[in-house]
Amino acid sequence: MVQASERSTTWRRFGSGILPWLLPLLILAAWEYAARSGLLSTRVLPEPWAVAKAAWHLVQTGELWSNLKVSAGRAFAGLAIGGGLGLLLGLLTGLFVPAQVALDSTLQMLRNIPPLAMIPLVILWFGIDEGAKLFLVALGVFFPLYLNTFHGIRTVDRNLIEMARSYGLSGWRLYRDVILPGALPSILVGLRFSLGLMWVLLIVAETISSSSGIGYMTMNAREFLQTDIVLVGILLYALLGKIADVAAKGLERVCLRWHPSYQ
Amino acid sequence: MSSAAHTQLLRDSTLAGREQPQSPAGSMAGTKNRSGLAIAIRGLEKHYDERQVLRGLSLDITRGSFVAIVGRSGCGKSTLLRIVAGLERADGGKLDVGTASCACEQRPDIRLMFQDARLLPWKSVIENVRLGLPRSALPAARAALRDVGLEDRAKDWPAALSGGQRQRVALARALVHRPQLLLLDEPLGALDALTRIEMHALIERLWREHGFTALLVTHDVQEAVALADRVVVIEDGTIGLDQAVALPRPRTRGSQAFAALEDRVLTQVLQQHTERPDAPASLEEQTDALRLATVRWVI
Predict the structure, then answer these.
(1) Could you give the dihedral angle defined by the CA atoms of residues B100, B106, B111 and B117, in that order, rounded to the nearest 10 degrees?
(2) Which of A162, A177, A258 comes nearest B121 by C-beta?
(3) pTM of this prediction?
(4) Which of A167, A181, A263 sits opposite B131 (nearest CB)?
């Protein structure tokens, strides 16, 4: 009986490990079959094997790496600028009521403008070089971080602050030991939103116009009807998005290890 | 007048509070000769908007004594404690704690235990105990944790502790500052009956060892009689009964003298209600009082 239950747990573990991959593998197999049997034209969708070969070719020529580096550089520079500003302003308005009165209603108004609606203006302001891409990404990631930082600070338990004050904490120490850790779960939610938006905005910015980056690589391939390379670009975006999400989750796991839901 | 002298005094007491935990003795040694702060309250007034909470309340508490304040919900007992703790300001009257008058300053020789433990969930148990103290206070924090019997949980997160354990950590956090006055704001209200009895013994032992003045606010009359030298019933913002409890320690709850005292205090707490039927009390409170009264008579 013990053996049977052991076997069932091993099966369960095995099943939960393999089950999520089953559907993608099936789709991949169906796709390969459809492409090989001629049901699917290569113009529409090349076979998976061709995509893999194209990816390998791009790796070998070094094209993939150089484009990837450029794209990632843009994404993280935009995140650093926009996210950093969002965090700082969120802290400012969250901690100081006068700053909130002066800034918050304006920022709430600007928040409702979709960043992509700014594209015509951005092109007029920055032309089509790096500045435009950075601005778009920074603008997009600013608001999730700003809003969540502000909200996080405002919802820190008042009782904990009262307790800390009565134990002699004030100023920087109160901020470091009580307010910031209390706001951190909310700030990290903002960061995850920002990371998602970061890639979306980068893709749009790079497809509009650029001479390097993954967006350029796919748009260039489109001109020559190289659907396999287009697919490599799309899959690359999916991979990058997933990596960013996993990294953000890992960060949450480390920073919030005190939280009951991470234990 | 002597605002400079006042500040000087506070600074001195700050220094004393900071130095103490670093003493090599670490534990209880050297505290025997300290016997807490005396409190003198004269005509204390407090109101929130239209509602008068404290009406000229006067109370003297001698050094090193254990005083329990009992009363119905909303009688002003918690407000009194928060004023003594410096968390709120009185609207009138005079309050002296120790040698300095207790303004809204945070004093390291006064520590408050809240009804909820209020531990910082993102700090380990030992870091919670060390809150507001330098790194060098770690041995003292560990000693305080040992005092409350939780040394082996030092590295755990507060979320992993039970309600009673959390309150014991909060008690250790207060004691590591070597307070001369410990204020307890219904600290055991949320605990189950068995844990509460354990905590009574712990608080009593630490009070005897450390020699601080203890001021306990509670709505549990039995708890008040079990712990305090003196039980003060607050009614409607003033003192309704001031009952000395001369029972020998450790106290046995079953004894006749204990029951008689408990009954006396309880009758006083309940009586105020029957005398003033127009007093604002919720239905829940009334049934609660009724139930308590019946139980008393049946037994």
Answers:
(1) 160
(2) A258
(3) 0.76
(4) A167
